[in-house]
Write a structure and sequence with these properties.
There is one protein chain. This protein is rod-shaped. Strands 2, 4, 5, 7, 8, 11 and 12 form a seven-stranded antiparallel sheet that branches. The chain has helices at 3-18, 29-39, 43-56, 62-78, 82-95, 108-120, 250-264, 278-297, 305-334, and strands at residues 124-128, 131-135, 141-147, 151-159, 164-173, 176-181, 194-203, 210-223, 243-245, 301-303, 337-342, 346-348. It is α+β, with helices and mostly antiparallel strands. The protein contains nine helices and twelve strands. It folds into three domains: 3-120, Serine Threonine Protein Phosphatase 5, Tetratricopeptide repeat (Alpha Horseshoe); 124-223 and 338-348, Immunoglobulin-like (Sandwich), CATH 2.60.40; 236-334, no CATH class. Helix content is 42%, strand content 23%. Helix 2 (29-39) runs antiparallel to helix 3, helix 4 (62-78) runs antiparallel to helix 5 and helix 5 packs across helix 6. Strand 7 (194-203) and strand 8 form a beta hairpin.
């Protein structure tokens, strides 16, 4: 037996002795059989059982899936298939970056390989509540990013057509990162109802190359409260006249000018022989002046102060009512609730489309 095989046998024996002290785990028949086969160093049997079980139960719980993949990777390693073991561990870490194998069960050959794969695998998973009621102005959609190892990550909200709505983060993440979103776009406006995506991208450290992209669909529906309509503008019929109607001065002006013209045109027969016409012009001028004076002193109207005050009070009451309704509508809009449903995450690998 090789040195690696001896090490595996020793750790398998120790794990068998320590098994009663381990925490209780969900019982899956084929996984229990694979674990017993691993302790018996039947690595071919382990690989057969686990591959068959995973194909039959693709939706098994994450913890049990991690156990199965770790036993599979260890078996592949001890069968001399290191590359296959690396691929299995990488597959495990992409979906469960916080997982660590139990060093009481697996020997250093397995745990050291796991650490090597973890440091070279750049992946992120996102934890977000499936359903969130987000009250605009007060609440936020919380999310947590978990990475396999240190690398650059960006998180954005985009529409289903790919247009960016809001950038949440861009920079390095060493272990985990808590983010939140207030339901507004980059301009501070509340997003409209529709389908969106939370897109989290893993990139090479300090480089532009995309390693993996996680998409989480977000269906957003707003519970918008009814608003109160504003009162219409006040009609002119509600206002009192603010000026009293008076006699027009145009009558006096017209009469004066007409009299002056008549005097100027008066036949000479009314004047004595040889009498100068200057007196007639003087009289005409006086009549015209009297007409102008009458036009000036006969004002067309005067201000009615009681009516002016009544109209001002009416306008002020209308303005106060509009202000109250606008404040009430603003408060109702502040109570807008976005109902956000987060769907199942999908991971895209540009190198393995």
């Amino acid at each position: 037996m090789t040195r690696t095989g001896v090490t595996a046998a020793v750790f398998a024996f120790l794990s068998f002795l320590r098994a009663p002290d381990l925490p209780a785990q969900v019982t899956i028949a084929w996984l229990d059989q694979a674990e017993r086969a691993y302790r018996d160093l039947e690595y071919d049997r382990v690989a057969e059982l686990i591959r068959g079980g995973l194909s039959r139960e693709p939706e098994m719980r994450m913890a049990e899936r991690a156990r199965a993949l770790t036993y599979l990777a260890a078996s592949e390693l001890f069968r001399g298939r290191r590359d296959t073991a690396v691929a299995v561990l990488s597959r495990l870490l992409v979906t469960n970056p916080r997982y660590r194998p139990d060093d009481l069960i697996f020997p250093p050959a397995v745990t050291d390989l796991f650490q090597t794969v973890r440091m070279t695998t750049k992946a992120v998973t996102v934890r977000v509540q499936p359903n969130t009621d987000l009250r605009i102005g007060d609440d936020r959609l919380a999310m947590r990013l978990l990475v396999t190892s240190y690398h650059d990550v960006s998180a954005v909200i985009v529409r289903d057509d790919g247009d960016q709505v809001r950038s949440l983060y861009s920079g390095p993440v060493a272990d985990s990162l808590d983010l939140s979103w207030n339901g507004r776009d980059a301009g501070g406006l509340t997003v409209e109802d529709g389908s969106y995506l939370l897109r989290v991208t893993s990139r090479t450290p300090g480089g532009p190359r995309v390693l993996r992209v996680v998409h989480i669909p977000l269906d957003i529906r707003g519970a918008r409260p009814d608003t109160v309509p504003e009162p219409p503008a006040l009609p002119d019929s509600l206002f009192l006249p603010e000026r009293a109607r008076g006699k027009s001065g145009f009558g006096s002006l017209g009469a004066g000018l007409l009299a002056a013209a008549a005097i100027v045109a008066m036949p000479h027969v009314l004047a004595g022989p040889g009498e100068a016409s200057s007196g007639r012009y003087a009289v005409a001028g006086a009549a015209g002046v009297l007409g102008i004076v009458g036009f000036v002193i006969q004002r067309p109207s005067k201000v009615l102060l009681p009516n002016v005050r009544a109209n001002a009070a009416l306008r002020e009451a209308w303005t106060r009512r509009v202000t109250v309704i606008r404040a009430e509508n603003a408060e109702r809009k502040r109570n807008l609730v976005l109902r956000i449903h987060a769907g199942t995450a999908t991971t895209l690998d540009p190198d393995n489309p």
